[in-house]
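Milestone 3.1: sequence recovery, worked example.
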């Protein structure tokens, strides 16, 4: 499986989806160009944080058809959750922008507010849930949901891997990259052999290490900071078993045999 986050940010147009959307119209060429520009901004946000740009960028993501995409909703929510957490004093202002979005887009952005774990964000959610409009049921349930701890995940799903990259690009926090690296260094081939390849059926947990390996190699080529984090993990934290997976499953295929960002594998 190809990581949706990478497709959204670095593929041409950045608007491909794995299945038709029932809520969004097909983006135009102008939408595609805008999506690509916003995606680049997100991918480099941690290097140049621009909280003053948040309201404009949220509106641009909406115009480009990115905020309501079901397949990348968690990735998008993760990115904004960290931006909101780092700038919680501005949440009330940004909440007014969220209120203008479509129902599907609001679900993504209110999830981001919840995941920020900011007291101001919780109060904004509570007040809106009490209004009793069509959002109330979703917001009340959201307030009860546990916020995922992406830094501590042992067996992240492909969607959680997307979220980890989003969180890193929003913050520069290396712990999110390490979650992806730990997943990439799982001996999934050995696990599958031990259980008889599950009668030929793969679960999302089985697929995740392959997606993690591809994303680690691809982003090491594109981002010096990612490469630095990965190399430090290998030097200081990797177990002998993990290093064996790197040498046998990853190192021997980098970089020439790895799919490129603009030509992902099927």
């Amino acid at each position: 499986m190809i990581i949706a986050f990478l497709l959204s940010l670095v593929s041409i147009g950045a608007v491909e989806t794995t299945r038709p959307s029932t809520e969004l119209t097909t983006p135009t060429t102008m939408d595609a160009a805008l999506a690509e520009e916003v995606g680049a901004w997100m991918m480099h946000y941690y290097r140049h944080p621009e909280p003053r740009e948040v309201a404009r960028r949220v509106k641009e993501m909406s115009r480009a058809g990115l905020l309501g995409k079901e397949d990348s909703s968690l990735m998008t929510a993760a990115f904004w959750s960290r931006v909101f957490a780092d700038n919680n004093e501005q949440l009330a202002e940004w909440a007014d922008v969220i209120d203008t979005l479509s129902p599907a887009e609001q679900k993504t952005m209110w999830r981001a507010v919840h995941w920020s774990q900011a007291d101001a964000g919780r109060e904004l959610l509570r007040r809106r849930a009490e209004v009793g409009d069509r959002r109330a049921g979703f917001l009340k349930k959201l307030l009860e949901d546990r916020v995922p701890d992406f830094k501590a995940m042992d067996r992240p799903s492909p969607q959680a891997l997307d979220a980890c990259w989003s969180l890193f690009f929003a913050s520069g926090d290396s712990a999110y990259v390490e979650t992806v690296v730990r997943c990439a260094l799982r001996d999934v081939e050995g696990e599958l052999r031990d259980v008889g390849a599950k009668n030929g059926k793969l679960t999302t947990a089985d697929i995740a290490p392959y997606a993690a390996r591809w994303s680690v190699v691809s982003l090491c080529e594109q981002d010096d900071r990612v490469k630095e984090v990965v190399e430090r993990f290998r030097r200081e934290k990797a177990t002998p078993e993990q290093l064996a997976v790197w040498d046998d499953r990853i190192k021997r295929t980098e970089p020439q045999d790895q799919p490129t960002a603009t030509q992902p594998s099927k």
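The CA atoms of residues 19 and 71 lie 8 Å apart. The chain has 14 helices and no strands.
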